[in-house]
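Q: Okay, next protein. This is Histidine phosphatase family protein from Nocardioides aquaticus. I've checked the sequence twice, so it should be correct. Can you predict the 3D structure?
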Amino acid sequence: MSAPAPGTTRTVVHLLRHGEVHNPRGVLYGRRDGFHLSTRGLAMADKVAEALGHRDIVHLRASPLERVQETIAPLAAARGLAVRTDERVIESGNVFEGERFGNGHNALKDPRTWRYLYNPWRPSWGEPYRLIVGRMMAAIHDARREAHGHEAVVVSHQLPIWTTRLHVEGRSFLHLPQNRRCTLCSVTSLHFDDERLVTLTYSEPAADLIPAAERGQAFSSGGTEQAPGEGGR
């Protein structure tokens, strides 16, 4: 990584996607409560803490959903930091929330759902991409200011992180879900010199825990093993 430009201060904001969720029915859980990390998801969170725990991280913020709070917990413990919950980095809204897309099910095969699919640029079936970017970038810049001269971690969800990446790289929002480069517990890092974004890097500290057959799936339905103590929720 290049040094900061003369007279500027380098700050890095890492966008971390949550780990694998216990979701044996393949539900598109969206913003619903009650979806926790699977056993493998908890192991992913530990891997992230191992990978990032030695870095100069001074600020943590996260979506309020359980799977995100559980993902950030090991890193928060490793760094001795409190986590700031931020509604602006929550999962995107989606009219298909609660429908089944995994384990042999696909709600889009039902003709009654097709009326939502008329505009993939907005998109017509969910929260507008530009609104997602607006709230995400506001949270990112708040994290950057809090961590000035150091590093921050913002824990969010796949679509908000990927949409933000498309925005900062000047790319079209139109994309296929299976082409998102944002695997479970991946880290998309935004490097700033003062307020100016100078580069973006990407890493996958928990990649070895993701089954090869699942890495290219359009929808990650989550694990079938429940997390310890979850009682089948």
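A: Here is a summary of the prediction. Residues 74 and 209 are 17 Å apart (CA to CA). Residues 10-214 form a domain with the Rossmann fold fold (CATH 3.40.50.1240).
Q: Noted. On to the next one.
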